[in-house]
Amino acid sequence: MSESLEVIGAVQSFDGRRVLDGVDLDVPPGTVVGLLGPNGAGKTTLMRIIFGVLDADEGEVRWRGGAVGGATRRTWGYMPQERGLYREMRTLDHLVWLARLYGVDRVQARQRAIDLLEQLGLGDRARDPIRELSGGMAQRVQLAAAMVHGPELLVLDEPFAGLDPGAVDFLTAVIREHVDRGGHLVFSSHQLDLVEDLCESIVLIDRGRVVMSGPVRELRAASPDRYLRVDVDVPPDWLTGLPVRDVRGDAAGSRILLEPGADATVVLDAVRRHSELVDFGVEAPTLSELFLAATGVRR
Ligand SMILES: Nc1ncnc2c1ncn2[C@@H]1O[C@H](COP(=O)(O)OP(=O)(O)OP(=O)(O)O)[C@@H](O)[C@H]1O
Ligand SMILES: [Mg+2]
Q1: What is the CATH number of the domain that holds 252?
Q2: Is the CB of 39 within 6 Å of ligand 1?
Q3: What are the C-alpha distances in Å from 41 to residues 6, 212, 216, 282, 298?
């Protein structure tokens, strides 16, 4: 029997417009699953269906092989994209109150809330009201709120949006720990490059359809595309006549997409003739490059 959270064939239309067109999702225990895709792809809609906030036109949500009802959903935690915390409540009190709503006893609720705040780097803000926290801090509290009752499944909608690198680290550690203990976790993001190291498995949706899914490492390795990465800016005319399909600059230099099977050293030599470079490498595509290839867009 499946140990997963599963969504099978979700279809959802709004005003006659299909925003989910038969989406499947599998979230096994012990795996970080990323639900990825651009703005408007349908990620939040799918999460709302998982939580029963929306009743899908078609399709099914299953938990460990069985149907899902209210009692099951109370063992889950959801961090919605539109955040909601009581601004006047003190941070620690808020978390304890939420845990109590879920039926956690007072002592345990308090301990768990304190531990979570500590883990999220907010131990010293426990007594402050929510309204005095910065946006990123409030967001970390929102994550704590989703998991203060010790849920088996965590569904996090854009948990990384607007966080500084330190906060991204705190949150990553909490996510990892939940999953390493055998928990289920799916989170959404449109920032593919930010999250690709964290996801073991991804479901990439675009305009309501799954365009790619599976373990990130396998997806990257299976792609025939190879990029020559160099730490200098390469204008296209340096590469005239070479087996190159595309050149794109980024903050670190340039990424040169090679023709399939091309010899990277030929291209590297051409770049070297124009410029001294320190760092280079031949790499499989990043997740966003895979996505752009899968959706037929190349920059
Ligand atoms: N209640 C609603 N009524 C009408 N249209 C809706 C409703 N909810 C979502 N949509 C539409 O469904 C599509 C998918 O929206 P959704 O919020 O699921 O996208 P998303 O992938 O979460 O995007 P983002 O990255 O911006 O959060 C969008 O075109 C959106 O306008
Ligand atoms: Mg969304």
Answers
A1: 3.30.70
A2: yes
A3: 19, 13, 20, 31, 18
